[in-house]
Amino acid sequence: MFTKNFDGIKPFEKKIWLASPTMHKEELEWIAKAIKDNWVTTAGDNINDLEKVCAEHIGRKYGVGLSSGTASLHLAIKICGEKLYGQPKVGHGTLEGRKVFCSDMTFAATANPIAYEGGEAVFIDTDPDAWNMDLVALEKAFAIHPDVKLVVVANLYGFTGNLEKLVEICHSHDALIVEDAAESFGTTYNGKQTGMFGDVSIISFNGNKIITGSTGGMLLTDSEEDAHKVRKWSIQSREDAPWYQHEEIGYNYRLSNLVAGAALGNYGHLADHISQKKAIYERYKEGLKGLPLSMMPIIDGCVPNYWLSCAIIDKDAMCKQVRSESEKEALYVSESGKTCPTEILETLAKFNAEGRPIWKPMHMQPVYRMFPFITRNGTGRARSNAYIKENGIMDVGADIFDRGLCLPSDNKMTAEQQETIIDIIRRCFG
Ligand SMILES: *Cc1c(COP(=O)(O)O)cnc(C)c1O
Description:
2 domains; four-stranded antiparallel beta sheet; binds pyridoxal-5'-phosphate; nine-stranded mixed beta sheet; 18 strands; Aspartate Aminotransferase, domain 2; Aspartate Aminotransferase, domain 1
């Protein structure tokens, strides 16, 4: 249903991805070495080397290579839960009956491990000026729930909020922090790498992250004891004994030496990937100037890795768009001079380019809808989004989800291809 003019634009012959893996030649070298040495298991030099370079890059004492970012988050949350509440009985989680504060606008993998451990996530709304956890809402959350001792915070799309202030708030309430730096490897805040701000932090090597091993993740800590414990948990909690001896429940979460080889080779290109992603963000910023839209903000002190370039459309330039809460579709009415994320994403898809909606906030997810949600001026607990709207409760996450989108951010996209994408977006406002 094109009412706008896209004359003269041809679809891309090869799809432009949101973010796809970028392999070089070193990945194959390290994988080949593992095969040649017959170290194709969950032990070997590639794992050891990857742990060493990542921990050093970030500035942590220990890295533990695990099978995914999600597995890393699970064990990060579990080790904090055990520190806070002790070892649970077999068959029980470390967080049973406990509330945990958690970023709201993020990938579900940030929040799910709280549930794996039997805890209840309390979602904290998003700061409109940082697109990361709202620290005003966080302080409010501590006032409402002073017993909470664990905060899981994600750095969104490779950009951070004020992490120093966040640490200060959490530590003043004797709360531990799990930092989900899955999307922000290489990002710094006030000169410190992300991954340094959590009591325990994690990164991910998932296929679309800035550095990938096809999959994989890593837990980061300064505690030798914690690193040792997590490593043990990840290999089925096998004790140091001649037979299979188990004092605790274990997991099969250890990183593969082949995957570590790919991640290690890819890691050598982190700086290149960041500069390519930065150039993409800046070309969008320049090319979309003058439109009623702004790029995701970069707060003072943050040097992002620019993993994804995201933007938000001004309120008065939004055409009518409805995303049904329970059904899984979006509808919009195309209007001259206005547009919406759905129109832009559908149009880009027609030209063979992939964008994506902003992460749908956790408090809007059917699975988490009855969970507590705390915003600057209210709480949305057990209430519909309609209730939140009617009562004027500020819900920044819902607003950014409504008006924001992730633009094609693949580092293999050429400047020329990106100019075409910018042209398509401009014409969506036509
Ligand atoms: C990708 C991602 C994860 C999960 O990492 P996997 O390696 O895919 O398990 C967790 N949190 C955030 C914010 C992510 O983007």
